[in-house]
Amino acid sequence: MDRAAALASALDARGGRRLPAVEWPEELASTSDRLKALARAGAPEWTTVLADRQTGGRGREGRAWASPPGGLYLSVLLRPRFEKVGLLPLAAGVAVAEAAGELGVRVELKWPNDVLASGRKLAGILSEAASGPGGVEWVVLGVGVNVAIDPAALPPEVAGSATSLRAVGGADVPVAAVAAAVLHRLGLCYDGLASRPGGVMTAWRSRAAPWWGEQVEVRTGEGELRGRLLEVDDDGALVVLVEGRRRRLLSGEVTRLRPAAAAG
User: Fold this and answer.
1) Under a CB-based contact definition with an 8 Å cutoff, are residues 247 and 216 in contact?
2) Do residue 195 and residue 102 come from a single domain?
3) pLDDT tens for residues 90-112?
């Protein structure tokens, strides 16, 4: 059975939605770039592209995402018809967290799109959208999960901050099984965003890294700011108290400050 057939079989066993089309070559430059081309050509919702490895994988802000064999590199096409499209990356984080839980791994979610295990990065999410006169036309949601990768084999700049399901003692299952778990959970969260988005946010907050009330630094396209982390609101924005003022941030990179750094 090939990988795409194994994925379809695993999804059928879960009773989830069937994927209209799946591509799963051994190598691609980027699963998301391939899927964006399919989206522009009119591919149906839930078309999915995976690869055993990527030569040009990327994360947020154009950063490289190391993509050697042993990881899950998955992009799925969504055509949302609900209002809170901006919550899709957070919903994907919940889906990955629940899938990891099935394999015996407890994770924490770090706003806006990182999944941490034992304080190290296990997975990342990248959401890219296209809009038209009527609003958002499609979203390509990319998910990368370190499944059986040895973190020491990753590039030096990320090896010390990364981990994998295998490294933290997760159940040893094929990548196709992890993909099925993530896609099944994502389908449930996606339906939840349409009917009860507050429930998805409750699920996200219950798994969030417990930094509430602590001093953080947030790097945005406009610069850096420091303040006290208050919440992630119902629209998925990070809310930080900066010099007595509440600031809502829709994107950025947040880091918890140690006491000495916060004081400085």
Assistant:
1) no
2) yes
3) 999 999 999 999 999 999 999 99
CATH at 259: 2.30.30.100
Distance (Å, whole) CA 165 – CA 122: 7
Residue 93 CA to residue 153 CA, distance in Å, equals 25
Q: How far is CA 191 from the centre of its chain?
A: 17
User: Would you state the structure tokens that stand for residue 57, as one six-digit string?
Assistant: 């994988």
**Model-wide pTM > 0.90:** yes
Same domain, 223 and 110: no
Task: Tell me the per-residue pLDDT of 5-18, one tens digit each, with 9 for 90 and over.
Answer: 889 899 999 987 89
Q: Is 251 left (phi over 0), alpha (psi -120 to 50) or beta?
A: beta
Residue with structure tokens 């084999």?
A: 153
Look up residue 44 and give its DSSP letter: P
**Tokens 């839930």 appear where?**
46
Q: What is the CATH number of the domain that holds 9?
A: 3.30.930.10
Helix-, strand-, coil-residue percentages of the chain, each rounded to 5: 35, 30, 35
Q: Where are the alpha helices (DSSP H) in 128-250?
A: 156-159, 175-195, 197-206
CA dihedral of residues 98, 102, 104, 110 (deg, nearest 10): -10
